[in-house]
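re: ur question from earlier - yeah i can do the single chain one, its not a big deal. heres the input i used so u can compare w yours
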Amino acid sequence: MKVLLVLAAEETPRLKIERMIRFIEAVKNPDSLSLAAPGSYINYYQKELPGYQIQEIQATTLDFDCIVYAQTEDGSWNTSIRDIGQAKVYVFDRRRLRKFDNTIDEADYPHLNTHVFNRLSPDTDRGFYYFPYGNLFRDVGIGPLDEFGFRIDANIDELKNRPKDHKVIAVFGGSAAWGLWALHDEMFTTQLQERLNAYCQEQGYRTRFTILNYAKQGDVVLNEILAFNLFCWDIHPEIVIAHDGWNDLGYGQLSDSHLLNHHQITYQTNLEAWSEILHQEKVSSHTFAVQNLSDRPIVNFPRTIVTAYAARLRQFRDIVESRKCTFISGLQPGYFSRPRRSPEETAAIDSWEPRKGFFKNMPFLYEKYLQIQPSLNMQHFVNFDEVFRDYDANHTLLADVVHTTPDGETVIAETYDRLIRSRILPNLLADSEEDHHE
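and the output i got, formated as tokens:
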């Protein structure tokens, strides 16, 4: 595949350009990569990227399979190449390669026709779509996905019949655990797998790990329970990590009060809009038709929200432990976890207006949850709100109000690695090594 990266009509810093190139290489695996820029910026880009030959846009040929436009800081891009031939066109929008027209085919997502709910879904590269057990979410352009949108590229059938010294860790959560701003090798799940395997190899153990990321955009603990039962039951992982909190406490403020108060049911608000469409009814004045979640009214009390989250997390723990799996609860960080922010964090967080709508209540809800958390009797608990507070303004760990940067992913991987090595791994090694130490 021959790819052309069209640089923006502004002085884009070298590190941002290198980030684009890394994305293209990771997602498209090109045979060749060429760079082009507007004529007035050729000299600047050539100085920033001495290892590349920067050609002028007007001088480019049409012999490319893929053209990627780099966005400017204001979100626009240069479209000087009008006749693109047969090339597919993408835009790099800071965190993924997005199709210019937002549509995809099997070359972009090989699983597009694997099952009926993929076939019936819109052929868009990002968004929720219907699945009879909650919903699925497709986010193409950041790395490999399986047929359900999970960031998994392992052979699941082989894992079901793996040898005793091959251990599996299954991770659940929402978009932050999914790794919204991370390439596949930057996700904390991938980094954690590499750390554990490197440690076992250094120590001469035969034990090795595969980590499966079953997180999905918008998931609350009820979705995690469904995903565990649907996709993970027969794999029988040795460890399950629930890296969550934000979605349950956030959506809990907006969910139907009867469902939350009487049944401890929290859900994604887009499901209300689906009900409207299905029944051709207007269910309420504050459903997902109000696109900006921060504009929706808060309808539930803090105690009810926090209690529902705790109850579902306890239920998930009990289900996992009934399978003789070790359960780790990780409370994910939020914007309030970074009192000493880097300039990049401050700009990214402020753009989300964190003091508006349900965002402003999140620090209080975290505080209330942490007050009752000891009563859950979780054997393994990590408070990432506390972990992230230990890092000063020289670290950029958040890319927005809740999603982590690749550096933030590293902090999470390091923290889980320390916990697993010190408190869980010795028992796993005793079970699998059978006194064999190479």
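Confidence is low (pLDDT under 50) at residues 285-290. not sure if urs matches, ping me
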